[in-house]
Amino acid sequence: MENNVTEFILMGLSQNKEVQQLCFFLFLLFYMIIMTGNFFIIITIQRSSNLNSPMYFFLSFLSFVDICYSSVTAPKLIIDFQAKVKRISFDGCMVQLFFVHLLGCTEIFILTVMAYDRYVAICKPLRYLTIMDWKFCSILVVFCWLGGFVHTFIQTVLTVQLPFCVPNLIDHYFCDVHPLLKLACTDTYVVGLIAMANSGMISLSSFVILVGSYTVILLSFKTHSSEGRHKALSTCASHITVVILYFVPCIFIYLRPSTTFPEDKMVAVFYTVITPMLNPLIYSLRNTEVKNAMKRLWIKRLLGRTTWGLIQPPL
């Protein structure tokens, strides 16, 4: 069947004008926090010699993915709060779908890799640097990207070949699989099952692996000293918080056939905006090494600017 749709109309988070104005300033603030916080994390890790372990390498990669991931949906969402009609072209919609799933799935895999890194560091500390060398860490990052690409390629190919008919209203604030399947002019049962298996099972299986990893880690704490137990627990608590905030909404959205609920839009905000915003706060506030490194780096920069200003000769 021929595709008669050249653009889609996004319904957005709300149709209420007052709510839209409030959300415009709120999500603009959220996006500024996302960009600032994650850039601070990346710069702090790159500039701090004591944050050179694999855990911080993966954390800087997570921050980079969060910046890209939120930038796929948040700017369009913010602009649309001021628009009367929230249009997006067919090609733009498919591109957004591609990058949402590429970066979202890559984040799932990097969180899984970070759990494995913590497992090796806590359960096999003597072999940690041997196992998690820089070559192996780089390979893991490449596999995260490849896994995300394979996932999004399947999702996008399944969706782009569907015929769409009017009305072309997407009851969401970005292009995603389930809302688009709802607009298709053909039977999407099989496509919905494949999409569920592709997205939902990746989310669920990764979540099970993560829960298993952190359970093993928590059980191993009894063999550690009190100080080591406290440090390891503080680090793992940060990771577990991020995992819950990210995976629970993803499982709710994707581990079901091609059906949509009114709550889906608000749930999606958690993994597209809230989690990328909270990640820098969680990892910096719960991690003493990151907090100290940030203080040293930014105090040094401020003092350096002050000293430079004092030694400049008057004009």
TrEMBL record:
<keyword id="KW-0812">Transmembrane</keyword>
<feature type="transmembrane region" description="Helical">
    <location>
        <begin position="94"/>
        <end position="116"/>
    </location>
</feature>
<keyword id="KW-1003">Cell membrane</keyword>
<feature type="transmembrane region" description="Helical">
    <location>
        <begin position="19"/>
        <end position="43"/>
    </location>
</feature>
<dbReference type="Pfam" id="PF13853">
    <property type="entry name" value="7tm_4"/>
</dbReference>
<comment type="function">
    <text>Putative odorant or sperm cell receptor.</text>
</comment>
<keyword id="KW-0297">G-protein coupled receptor</keyword>
<keyword id="KW-0716">Sensory transduction</keyword>
<keyword id="KW-0675">Receptor</keyword>
<feature type="transmembrane region" description="Helical">
    <location>
        <begin position="136"/>
        <end position="154"/>
    </location>
</feature>
<comment type="similarity">
    <text>Belongs to the G-protein coupled receptor 1 family.</text>
</comment>
<feature type="transmembrane region" description="Helical">
    <location>
        <begin position="201"/>
        <end position="221"/>
    </location>
</feature>
<dbReference type="InterPro" id="IPR050427">
    <property type="entry name" value="Olfactory_Receptors"/>
</dbReference>
<feature type="transmembrane region" description="Helical">
    <location>
        <begin position="233"/>
        <end position="255"/>
    </location>
</feature>
<feature type="transmembrane region" description="Helical">
    <location>
        <begin position="55"/>
        <end position="74"/>
    </location>
</feature>
<dbReference type="InterPro" id="IPR000725">
    <property type="entry name" value="Olfact_rcpt"/>
</dbReference>
<keyword id="KW-1133">Transmembrane helix</keyword>
<keyword id="KW-0552">Olfaction</keyword>
<dbReference type="InterPro" id="IPR017452">
    <property type="entry name" value="GPCR_Rhodpsn_7TM"/>
</dbReference>
<feature type="transmembrane region" description="Helical">
    <location>
        <begin position="267"/>
        <end position="285"/>
    </location>
</feature>
<keyword id="KW-0472">Membrane</keyword>
<dbReference type="GO" id="GO:0004984">
    <property type="term" value="F:olfactory receptor activity"/>
</dbReference>
<dbReference type="InterPro" id="IPR000276">
    <property type="entry name" value="GPCR_Rhodpsn"/>
</dbReference>
<keyword id="KW-0807">Transducer</keyword>
<dbReference type="GO" id="GO:0005886">
    <property type="term" value="C:plasma membrane"/>
</dbReference>
<protein>
    <recommendedName>
        <fullName>Olfactory receptor</fullName>
    </recommendedName>
</protein>
<feature type="domain" description="G-protein coupled receptors family 1 profile">
    <location>
        <begin position="37"/>
        <end position="283"/>
    </location>
</feature>
<dbReference type="GO" id="GO:0004930">
    <property type="term" value="F:G protein-coupled receptor activity"/>
</dbReference>
